[in-house]
Design brief:
The protein has a domain at 95-165: Sandwich (Immunoglobulin-like). It is built from 2 helices and 8 strands, in the order ββααββββββ. The protein has helices spanning 48-53, 75-81; strands spanning 3-6, 16-19, 95-98, 104-109, 117-123, 134-141, 147-152, 159-165. A hairpin with a 5-residue loop joins strand 3 and strand 4 (104-109).
C-alpha cells in the first residue's frame, strides 16, 4: 500500500495520507499559514539557525519550491516536519494504520520528533470545497519514537489525516 503526504494549509499545516505516489512540493500551499520566525533575516519562513544548520544561506530567501535534497518534500516542509533537508531518506514518517477491534483505528506515527506536536483530524465529507477538517483531541507531543492515536470510529463514513505543528 503506497501513501502520499499533502497539505491544505489550515491552522496546523496538516499532512494528509492518501493512496498513490508522492508528488514533489505538494505541501507548498501551507507556506502562507506559518507564523513568521523570530530570527529570519530573509523572510522565507525558515529560521536562520535552521538554514545555517543545513548549509543554507540565511540571508538569501529560499523560494517555496526549494528542495536541497531533491526528495518529495520542500525545504520548508522538511522544517515543519523536523526532518533533514539534506537527506532524501529523511521525510515525514509513513503513518501505519493497525487493525484493532472493529470500530477502532490506531494510527501510528513512527518516528516522531520531540520538537513537534502531532494530531489527527477527521472529516465526514471530502467533496466540500474547501474541505472541513476537525481536530480529534488530544494532540500529542512527539516522543522520538512512536506516537499512537486510538480512534473510535462511530460515524458511518469518516476520513482521517495526521497533522504536525510547532509547539
Amino acid at each position: 500500500m503506497d501513501f502520499q503526504l499533502w497539505g491544505t494549509g489550515d491552522r496546523y499545516d496538516d499532512f494528509v495520507w492518501q493512496f498513490g505516489p508522492p508528488s514533489p512540493g505538494q505541501l507548498n500551499g501551507l507556506l502562507q499559514e506559518i507564523t513568521p520566525c523570530a530570527s529570519d533575516r530573509d523572510n522565507d519562513q525558515l529560521p536562520d539557525w535552521w538554514e545555517q544548520q543545513y548549509g543554507l544561506d540565511p540571508t538569501v530567501s529560499n523560494p517555496p519550491s526549494s528542495n536541497l535534497d531533491s526528495d518529495w518534500m520542500t525545504d520548508w516542509e522538511e522544517y515543519l516536519a523536523d526532518t533533514d533537508p539534506s537527506d532524501p531518506n529523511s521525510v515525514f514518517p509513513l503513518v501505519v494504520v493497525t487493525n484493532p477491534p472493529r470500530g477502532v483505528i490506531d494510527l501510528v506515527v513512527d518516528p516522531s520528533s520531540t520538537a513537534r506536536v502531532y494530531g489527527v483530524y477527521m472529516s465526514t465529507n471530502l467533496l466540500t470545497d474547501p474541505q472541513r477538517w476537525g481536530l480529534l483531541p488530544p494532540e500529542q507531543l512527539g516522543t522520538g519514537g512512536e506516537v499512537i492515536f486510538t480512534i473510535t470510529n462511530d460515524a458511518p463514513i469518516r476520513s482521517y489525516r495526521t497533522g504536525v505543528r510547532l509547539p
